[in-house]
Amino acid sequence: MGKEERFENLLSEFHRIPFEERQERLAKWCDLDPQELQILRGVNALPIETAEHFIENVIGVFPMPMGVATYFNIDGKDLLIPMAVEETSIIAAVSATAKWIRKMNGKITTETRGNLIIGQVQIPRVRDLELAVQRLMARKTELIQVANSIVPGLVARGGGVKDLLFRSLPREDQNGTMLVIHVLCDPKDAMGANLINQVCEGLKPEIEMITEEKVGLCILSNLVDGKLTYARVEISGIDPEVGFGIQEAAQFAKTDPYRASTHNKGVLNGIDPTLIATGNDWRAVEAGVHAFAARSGKYQPVTDWHFDGTTLVGEFLAPLAVGTVGGVTMLHPTARLALKILGVQNAEGLARILAATGLVQNLGALKALATVGIVKGHMRLHAANLAMAAGASERELPLLREELSTALAREKRISLSRAKEILEAIRSTEKPIHFN
Ligand code: COA
């Protein structure tokens, strides 16, 4: 059986089959052993002893459901994408959209633009800007050597500090000029925060000596615009109403920051869950994406969509600073497994998958918004949460869900109070209810 056929078999009815069967298929596809499947079930998913090393004042662990996005083919490779997330309909929507792209013979391609993260060494109120820059420029090679001596392991892996940039900034308080030195570093497969912070602090005495100025903060920047990830989706033969609707939705986001914020949240719906699943620092990525979105001075969407009457093209561009080594990625048993399921070899591979998932997630939401609206699909799945919150027992859940779906189709809205009302009606019905 060919790989493509095996993938189709793996996915057939995937969300309808019982959990055990889903795990069995996953184990076969990703070559997982019984112990790894137990970890996915939550057994030793994060032992307390390990958790104690991660953070302070540990009182327990916080479980979260983890699912996989299906139907993805990125850069010609079929893959399952693990997503740890609490919100209903994200995984269904991104999978449905990936399935649609596949059915339409669309293409999802990605690339990385640049490989340099940024550390900042600040001289808060420079006394002689020109002289300081002149002296730093003259000793640049030596400074880079000093910087690299702080991270010999990284240099041995082919990474390290590659360049220094000097930026003069008029202070907001109009009290002089700030000189900010950007330390540009290739972190290879690490996210790089700890590396670059140590490099910046290590350079401080050297920079103070060379410039005879006082250094202030030494810290990485999350606006990693020297290392961007790009993803592109192209689909032909689209219904013009859908295609123009999606283009128009992108126009709304470009015009109005109030919309751009929600648009980008939708993109991040497809990114954050995999960051969490792989133990990456999602706050850093969020900060970077939003700062990049506002780089022109106006908050903008990080994706764009164009339709020419037949072909729809979507593009994503933003910094996604992630790691596959360092941090907790390799220490967290579930994160390690998520990387195994993804089958990524390095940080670049992970970032490219994230960019693609964010773009496809965005397409799913825009397609729904431009056609039937978001409520229909989202609330149909959210009905399960409402049914549980209303207090339905395991036996009552299927019927209440069904009743809520009917109510949603009829009344175009459902709520917790409506769910409670329906549950009461079910319970007070004179006829005994037979489940199964
Ligand atoms: N669980 C997992 N995947 C699901 C699913 C579920 N309950 N329901 C649908 N899917 C995915 C599957 O990949 C499915 O293909 P498969 O049956 O071969 O596995 C694919 O969607 C199509 O299924 P279908 O039942 O035809 O879905 P639909 O066309 O009725 O769409 C939604 C349902 C929810 C996916 C769709 O309404 C949607 O995308 N809405 C937007 C919701 C959104 O953007 N949410 C983000 C947060 S607001």
Provide an overview of this structure.
This protein is 50% helix and 18% strand. The protein folds into three domains: 68-113 and 228-371, 3-hydroxy-3-methylglutaryl-coenzyme A Reductase, Chain A, domain 2; 117-221, Alpha-Beta Plaits, CATH 3.30.70; 376-427, Helicase, Ruva Protein, domain 3 (Orthogonal Bundle), CATH 1.10.8.660. The strands form three sheets. It has a four-stranded antiparallel sheet. Strands 5-6-4-7 form a four-stranded antiparallel sheet. The chain is an alpha+beta fold and 436 residues long. Coenzyme A binds at residues 14-15, 70-71, 89-93, 95-96, 99, 269, 364-365, 368, 374, 377-378, 381. Residues 14-15, 70-71, 89-93, 95-96, 99, 269, 364-365, 368, 374, 377-378, 381 line the site of coenzyme A.
Concise synopsis of the structure shown:
The chain is 50% helix and 18% strand.
What structural class should be given to the helix and strand makeup? Answer: alpha+beta
Tell me the β content: 15-25%
Q: Give the total of beta strands.
A: 10
Global outline: globular
Count of individual helical segments: 18
Name the CATH architecture of the largest domain.
Alpha-Beta Complex
Key features of this structure:
436 residues; alpha+beta; 3-hydroxy-3-methylglutaryl-coenzyme A Reductase, Chain A, domain 2; Alpha-Beta Plaits; Helicase, Ruva Protein, domain 3; 3 domains; 4-stranded antiparallel β-sheet; 18 helices; 10 strands
What's the layout of helices and strands?
Layout: H1 3-11, H2 19-30, H3 34-41, H4 48-54, E1 66-74, E2 77-84, H5 90-103, E3 107-113, E4 117-123, H6 129-138, H7 140-150, H8 152-156, E5 160-170, E6 177-186, H9 193-211, E7 218-221, E8 228-235, H10 240-255, H11 257-269, H12 272-277, H13 282-293, E9 303-307, E10 312-319, H14 333-342, H15 347-370, H16 374-389, H17 397-411, H18 416-428
Antiparallel strand pairs: 1-2, 3-8, 4-6, 4-7, 5-6, 8-10, 9-10
Bound molecules: coenzyme A.
Residues 14-15, 70-71, 89-93, 95-96, 99, 269, 364-365, 368, 374, 377-378, 381 line the site of coenzyme A (COA).
